[in-house]
Amino acid sequence: VLASLFHDPSHFAPEGKYQLLPFHFVRLEADRYILTNLVGEYTVLERSDLAAFIAKELSPGDAVYRTLKARHFLFDNDNRVALDLLALKYRTRTARLADLTGLHIFVVTLRCDHSCHYCQVSRQMEDRTQYDMRNEHADLAVDFAFSSPSPTLKLEFQGGEPLLNFELIRRIVERAKAKNREYGKDLQFVIASNLTHLNREVLDFCKLHRMAFSTSLDGPEDLHNTHRTLHRKNSHQATIEGIQQIVDHLGPHSISALMTTSQASLPRVRDIVDEYVQRGFHSIFLRGISPYGFASRSILAKQYSPDDWIRFYIQGLDYILELNRSGYPMREEFASILLQKMFCHGGTGYVDLQSPAGLAIAGIVYNYDGSIYASDEGRMLAEMGDQRFRIGDLMNDTFESAMNHEGLFSILQDTMTESMPMCSDCAFQPWCGADPTFHHATLGDYVGHKAFSTFCRKQMAIFRYLIHLIEDVPTAREVLLGWV
Ligand code: SF4
To answer: Is the shortest distance between the CB of 438 and ligand 1 below 6 Å?
Structure first.
């Protein structure tokens, strides 16, 4: 359909003239502007070149003309294939919509031995087994996951602390592998764990089934233990021991970690990155606090402003680039995701940066009680009494009925960034996303007025900074493009 809109270029481009293709622009700094097109290709122009381009005063011999033509900002009668190529790139960008749903999150228990101040999931005490997922729900959830058309299935175990219900993880993995003999999908398993319940049996099982771990490491011992409280034990020490056990048993590529930024983290980003280096990691995800669960009720979420976090993030990114230049390969995961959106036509499956939103399309959640949620944050809001992201239950719904849930459709309709107020005019839109759960939690509606959206503020700042690095700092450009 899109291609047909571009057919017959003569209609658009009278002889000897060029025509503009849809694009957005925003000031980068002073007299320089970022231009992005329909498929997220970009260029940076001086104001005078931008003005000449819009006034159709450029000549085919100009370098700027050739750049704009190659990147689908203009077309002329010389090149009919360009329009079909643009349409093809647009289809490639949106192809993952047809391959829903790759990520399936199993909340196997809400119980946890930690009581972190910023806990997003409203964890329960260790002895409260009524918060464990039942076998029948687990079996149905596996069947549900295999009903999705996606050729890749990532089954992620979350909690609480999922290893407190390891027998259920074992059951789910074995059932999924048995089922996959028939389906032949690319099947992956990840456990999001604090690693305090690792033992030989768990490690052997995970090795046999090539399972990966994701854990939380907030930084050096004093910083990590500030908000991650483990009764009777030192949380940092337990995490480091767990990381080492996984490295020794499963290999260094089987463990990744992410941190949560608190006010105490703000002046210490170098210490945090150094801690990751010391533990042998080559990647880190610099992450702010999410406004869900206990964090929403504590003052933690309000202790620093979006600008504080942006400064922290930029300092961290600069330091990571410095480490790379000095010979230690290190990657910042959020920047990597954004760079993939900027430079790969297929984009990324990162749930928060999709249009329409990744709700149920990029990832779906099976809660401990059999409820199905359209996002992980949706189930976190449910623990706070807000059920609007619930799209069914495992006992009564099929994949088709949950995906056709009326509430889900109405949210998805609101989350096309191409048509959202402010996003539709924004040069960063092709690389950005909707994140309706965050906007609902912080601003009271799925879209959110972007002038008041901390999500938008952070996105704009990071996009600008990445483009500045790529355009103006050759050594940074080399490292950043290596992350794509
Ligand atoms: S959220 Fe902000 S940065 Fe993202 S597309 Fe919308 S206006 Fe642009």
So the answer is: no
Q: Whose CA is nearest to atom 5 of ligand 1?
A: 429
The span from the CA of 329 to the CA of 257, in Å, is 16
Q: What spacing in Å lies between the alpha carbon of 464 and ligand 1's midpoint?
A: 12
Amino acid code (one letter) for 53: F
Q: What are phi and psi of 6, to 5 degrees?
A: -95, -5
Q: Is 459 in the pocket of ligand 1 (CB under 6 A)?
A: yes
Preceding amide of 436 cis, omega within 30: no
Contact 133, 160 (CB under 8 A): no
Rounded Cα distance, 480 and 472, in Å: 13
Angstrom distance (rounded) from CA 288 to CA 170? 32
Ligand 1 midpoint to CA 450 (Å): 7
The answer to whether 323 touches 413, Cβ cutoff 8 Å, is no
401 three-state secondary structure: helix
Question: Which amino acid residue places its CA nearest to atom 1 of ligand 1?
Answer: 456
Least confident of 162-166, 330-334, 375-379, 398-402: 375-379
Tens of pLDDT, residues 451-478 = 999 999 999 999 999 999 999 999 999 9
Please tell me the distance between residue 395's alpha carbon and the centre of ligand 1 in angstroms.
38
Shortest-distance Cα residue to atom 6 of ligand 1: 423
Q: Is 122 touching ligand 1 by the criterion CB < 6 Å?
A: no
pTM, full prediction:
0.89
